[in-house]
Structures are given as C-alpha cells and as structure tokens.
Amino acid sequence: MSGLPTVVWGEDQVFCDGPAPELDAEFFADIARNLLSKSTQVTVSVDVDDAESQVRLAVAGFVVQPINAEAPEEDEECVTLERRGPLESLLADLRRLPAGAALGMLAMDGARGVDLDCGIGLDIWGEGALAATRTAAIARGISLDEKPPEDDLNDH
C-alpha cells in the first residue's frame, strides 16, 4: 500500500498531496496545531466561493481581502477572507463551515505556515515543518511516501 506522496526539501519545507478531500481540512488543522503554537497569534485566510460560507466567516470576524489584480487566473467567484487571532479559535470557526466549502486555507505566524489548496496539496514551511507533518499523519493514520524533490536542473 503506497502512502501520501510527500516531497521533502528538508526539515523546514514539505509539500504533500492532499489526502482524500474529506480529510483535507482536518489534516490541515492537525499540521497547523503541530507547527504553530495553539496560543500563538496567527493569521488564517480562507478561500470560499459561496455566499453562505462568506457570511459565516464574516460573522466570525473574518474580513474580505481585496482581489489581486495582478493574478487574472484567479477565480472571480472566489473570495478570500482573513482574520488574526489564537489558532484554536480560528480553527473552530473553520470547522463550522459546511464540508467542502473552503477551496483553500492558509495559517501562518510569519516564519512558519501551512497552505492548503484543496484537491492539490499542502505546502508546509518553517522550523519543524517535517515533524509537524509526520505527527499529523500518524494521528490521522496516514502513511507518508517521502521523497526528495526532483532536481531537473541537473539535466541541463
């Protein structure tokens, strides 16, 4: 049985494919808890494309972020909402969203972070990234298939 494809650049940079879609948000939350202190003030951003989720997040104190005019490939229906605060409180707000409502999530405290692009994967960076990912995978019963990055620069 193969594990979740995971590219490891080092102890402080990991990219892994997303697990089954129904586990994306929980795996993201587990990694964020392991990487970022539960009491740390962090910034959490969430991408949604439905009005109900946008309203739920706004009521929880999330603020709509301006659209990046330099990124025309972005989905115009998608809205990014952001809030700064204690990690566990922000994760609780995300758990109140309907399953599959978030298209992406980002939690960071400056030098460390977790970025989930639902359906694509998770980018984890900063001190302790690999350990946080491994711990979250073990807790969820997910096997990681760790590999070094492919270095196609050596082919030239």
Summarize the model shown:
The chain is of the alpha+beta class and 156 residues long.
What does this structure look like?
- The protein has 156 residues and is of the alpha+beta class.
- It has one domain (4-144).
- Helix content is 27%, strand content 33%.
- It has helices at 24-35, 51-59, 87-95, 129-140, and strands at residues 4-10, 13-17, 41-48, 63-64, 79-86, 102-108, 113-117, 121-125, 144-147.
- It has a nine-stranded mixed sheet with strand order 4-5-3-6-7-8-2-1-9.
- A hairpin with a 2-residue loop joins strand 1 and strand 2.
- The model is unreliable at 152-156 (pLDDT under 50).
Key features?
alpha+beta, 156 residues, globular, single chain, disordered C terminus
Oligomer: single chain
DSSP, total strands: 9
Computed Rg:
16 Å
Order of helices and strands: EEHEHEEHEEEHE
Side by side, the strands of the main sheet go 4-5-3-6-7-8-2-1-9
Question: Which structural class best describes the helix and strand composition?
Answer: alpha+beta
Estimate what percentage of residues fall within beta strands.
Answer: 25-35%
Secondary-structure topology with pairs:
Blueprint (H helix, E strand, L loop, with lengths): L3 E7 L2 E5 L6 H12 L5 E8 L2 H9 L3 E2 L14 E8 H9 L6 E7 L4 E5 L3 E5 L3 H12 L3 E4 L9
Parallel strand pairs: 1-9
Antiparallel strand pairs: 1-2, 2-8, 3-5, 3-6, 4-5, 6-7, 7-8
